[in-house]
Structure prediction request, 73 residues.
Amino acid sequence: MEESKPIYLSKTVIASVIVIVATVLGPFGIDIDAGTQTQLVDFLLAITTAVAGIVAIYSRVKATKVIRSAKGE
Prediction:
């Protein structure tokens, strides 16, 4: 596993947060079934990816310096 990605793009992390939230809400009478949890994971991952893409594009447009390779080429 050589490649890396931001933690907020990890499906495992998003799913874990949803499971924790669903567990905490259970005693308050709010039940989130497994199917709904799966849909929430997919939805949040799509939203997070879209927002990350928008931020990346915006940041590049607003950047004031040229991108160069690490070798200085």
